[in-house]
Amino acid sequence: MIPPSFDETSMRRVATAFIVATALAGCATTRPGVPDAPLELVALAPVVLPPDCEPGRGVVYRTAFVVQPDGSVTQITAQSGTGCVQQALQDWVATFRYRPVAEATPTVIDWIAVTARRGG
Question: What homologous superfamily is domain 41-111 in, according to CATH?
Answer without folding.
Answer: TonB (3.30.2420.10)
